[in-house]
Structure formats: structure tokens, C-alpha cells
Design a protein that fits this description.
Pfam families: HTH_IclR, IclR_C. The chain has 2 domains: about 50 residues, Winged helix-like DNA-binding domain superfamily/Winged helix DNA-binding domain (Arc Repressor Mutant, subunit A); about 180 residues, GAF domain (Beta-Lactamase, 2-Layer Sandwich), CATH 3.30.450.40. Helix content is about 45%, strand content about 20%. The strands form 2 sheets. A 6-stranded antiparallel beta sheet has the order 5-4-3-8-7-6, with helices on both faces. Strands 1-2 form a two-stranded antiparallel sheet. Helix 1 packs across helix 2 and helix 4 packs antiparallel against helix 8. The radius of gyration is 23 Å and the shape is elongated.
């Protein structure tokens, strides 16, 4: 009590009234043995309210712009919805030849780079449930069509921290994608780039994949995920 009163430059009686109110509201807690004060659980609750209300698009938009500048490719922000992904934001490439996409468009989780990036980081029971529902319909001759091969690919995604769509959803289009996590460590979205295969060479795809992974980690950190560097 004395230390707090001195730090606030108020009388001990004033500090006592303030602390009594904060204690009643749950903002501070007191150790009955030492009589020292510490922050209460109410601050954690308030922190979650703030984090839950952060707008994903607002947090991601400047990072999407950076990715588009660094890679020169169309950049997407995507969220999962049952067995699909939904594009909720995009930055258009300035290249003459580019991928067609639009905000609101849907695509399957299993054959898109960003879908695989999200699936790879779901809880095992949730992933299993989704995989059992997937029919693995071939969209192109490159689409993964077996559950066994698909699960092996997801293992590789976890190892690298990013995923690749090698013309699996649309022929002639290659993509790189990475997951976005919220403050609870739960994957909630993904970011991806996409471009024509003649421009997205193996060398460029490898380089751009690392950019996407790093920038996705930045978005996760903005949403309160504190272990993004370990993704």
C-alpha cells in the first residue's frame, strides 16, 4: 500500500480507497499473507475483448499491400467456412498477366494453397472430421485425389510453415500460402499469393513462399499471437 501511494503521489487513505474499488471489481487481487497487490483476472478479460474485436481485414490490409509489392503477385486474405475458403480481401497484381479472383469468391479447402495452410494447423479431431467429408474431386490433372497423399502434404506444410498450390485448383496458376493465428493460437485465416505458372517459376515460388510465411506471421502478431516466429 505504501509503495503504491508513493508511486501515485497520493495519500495512503486515497490509495486504499482506489485499491478497494479495484479489488471489488476484480481489476486487482491481494495476497492475504503478504498483503501485496497484483493485477486481477479482469484485465485478462478486457484484453480478450479488445483482441476479439480487432478487425482481421484492417489488421491484414497493410501487410497484404507489402506482400503484393514484394512479390508482384495478386495477394489474398482468406477465411475458412466449413469445407471451403472465402476470399475476404485482395490486392491486385500490376502485372499484365494475372490471376482472376474476387472478394466473396469461394473455393475448396483441399485443392487450394491457402486451404491447405489452414487445414494443416487445425486441431487433429477437427481436421479428421473435414478430411472424412472431402470427396477429393479432381479440379485439374494435378489435384491431390487420395486422403493418404493429402495428409502427407499437410505434414510438409507444418514442417515448412507454408503451402503450395501447384496448379491443383486451376491449371496455369501456382500459389503460395501461409496460416494466420489469433491470440489464442488458433488458425483463423490464411494469406496467399497467386500468379501464372510461366512467371511463378520454382525459384520465384520458393522465394515468395518465404515472404508470405514471414508476412503471415506479422499479421498473426498483430492479432495477439505471440509465438508467430515458431510457425
Amino acid at each position: 500500500m505504501t509503495e503504491i501511494a508513493n508511486r501515485l503521489n497520493v495519500a495512503k487513505s486515497t490509495a486504499h480507497r482506489i485499491l478497494s474499488t479495484l479489488l471489488l471489481k476484480g481489476y486487482v487481487q491481494q495476497d492475504p499473507r503478504t498483503e501485496t497487490y497484483s493485477l486481477g483476472l479482469r484485465f485478462i478479460e478486457l484484453g480478450h475483448v479488445v483482441l476479439d474485436n480487432l478487425d482481421l481485414r484492417d489488421a491484414a490490409r497493410p501487410v497484404l499491400e507489402t506482400i503484393a509489392q514484394e512479390t508482384g503477385e495478386t495477394t489474398h486474405l482468406v477465411v475458412p467456412e466449413r469445407d471451403d475458403i472465402v476470399y475476404i480481401d485482395k490486392i491486385e497484381s500490376e502485372a499484365t498477366i494475372r490471376m482472376f479472383s474476387r472478394v466473396g469468391r469461394r473455393a475448396p479447402l483441399y485443392c487450394t494453397g491457402v486451404g491447405k495452410a489452414i487445414l494443416a494447423y487445425l486441431e487433429s479431431d477437427e481436421l479428421q472430421e473435414i478430411v472424412e467429408r472431402i470427396s477429393f474431386e479432381p479440379k485439374t490433372k494435378f489435384t491431390i485425389t487420395t486422403k493418404e497423399e493429402f495428409l502427407i502434404v499437410l505434414d510438409k506444410v507444418r514442417l515448412r510453415g507454408y503451402s503450395i498450390d501447384d496448379e491443383e485448383h486451376e491449371e496455369g496458376i501456382r500459389c503460395a500460402a501461409a496460416p494466420i493465428f489469433n491470440h489464442e493460437g488458433r488458425v483463423i485465416a490464411g494469406v496467399s499469393i497467386a500468379g501464372p505458372s510461366q512467371r511463378m517459376t520454382d525459384e520465384k515460388l520458393d522465394r515468395d513462399s518465404l515472404i508470405v510465411r514471414q508476412r503471415a506471421q506479422e499479421i498473426s502478431a498483430k492479432l495477439g499471437y505471440r509465438e508467430a516466429k515458431g510457425v
